[in-house]
Specification:
D-Maltodextrin-Binding Protein, domain 2, 13 strands, alpha/beta, 2 domains, 11 helices, five-stranded mixed sheet
Length: 281
């Protein structure tokens, strides 16, 4: 039969064991693998980052998952199949949250701006585009509005006051050249370029199709206040907005060595934007 002091000592040892095991459990949870959902060239970037010495030094274990549909990728992030996603612009993010009030995302930080371009195999500049030309634009709300804003900046159309991320061709105020608009799946832009005289193509899709926005487009966005809504971000489910491990991904993306790799691989078309989220608001 154990003496009272032996029973007390045993209880203390057991309590300490449980405490230490709990501590180990917490430690492993903070270093869990983070699943990043992405697509196109962004997928390639995060595959590189996941294997990089910089990720290891930051104590981040990263797994990259490909989901090619933006809406499905955001849905997978909210449902927890993906922890963080890397593919969308600020305007796309705002449009998604507006359309999905019961399943919102939270932005973690900025990454880059990829200039949207106007492409044509038939015309060398926007001034050459004749009356009645059909222009292919994206069929999803955020990119539709972005396309129209670029066409306005190029001097081809004028948009109504208050035009926003969910606006569309119904919000065109003036169309002096009587341009016609054909909405397409914006991942098919390079292929459609053979069938339509003018196409607007995002840089990620353009790169996948062997196009370089700074040299192959007839007109493209510049980095300035007018294009801040088009800056790309890292996003997560709203409930994870304060996750410290996820926030480390933003700092990792802007690591100088990582940026050097991105600039070289994508010919300077992914222009780094290292700004606080307040810059976009």
């Amino acid at each position: 039969m154990k003496k009272p002091w032996q029973r007390i000592l045993g209880a203390i040892v057991l309590a300490l064991s449980v405490f230490l095991m709990a501590g180990c459990g917490n430690q492993s949870s903070t270093s869990k693998t983070i699943t990043i959902g992405s697509q196109g060239s962004d997928l390639e970037i995060w595959q590189h980052i996941a294997k990089s010495p910089q990720a290891k030094k930051a104590g981040l274990k990263i797994k990259v998952k490909e989901i090619t549909d933006g809406t499905q990728l955001n849905k997978a992030t909210i449902e927890g199949q993906v922890d963080v996603n890397a593919f969308q612009s600020w305007s796309y993010y705002l449009a998604y949250n507006k359309q999905n009030p019961n399943g919102k995302l939270a932005a973690l930080g900025t990454t880059y701006l990829e200039p949207l371009g106007i492409y044509s195999k038939k015309y060398k500049k926007t001034a050459d585009i004749p009356d009645g030309t059909t222009i292919a634009i994206a069929n999803n709300p955020a990119n539709t509005s972005r396309d129209l804003l670029l066409l306005q900046k190029a001097g081809l159309i004028t948009l109504n006051k208050g035009f926003d991320a969910l606006s569309n061709t119904k919000d065109i105020k003036s169309n002096p050249k009587n341009l016609k608009f054909k909405e397409i799946d914006d991942t098919t832009g390079p292929r459609v370029l053979n069938d339509v005289d003018v196409v607007l193509i995002s840089n990620t899709v353009a790169l996948d199709g062997g196009l370089h926005v700074l040299t192959d487009s007839i007109y493209h966005e510049n980095v300035d206040q007018s294009t801040k809504n088009n800056v790309n971000i890292l996003a997560t489910a709203e409930k994870n907005k304060n996750n410290k491990q996820y926030k480390k991904l933003v700092k990792l993306y802007h690591n100088k060595t990582i940026q050097k790799y991105i600039k070289k691989k994508y010919y300077g078309t992914k222009i780094e934007v290292n700004k606080p989220l307040s810059y976009l608001k």
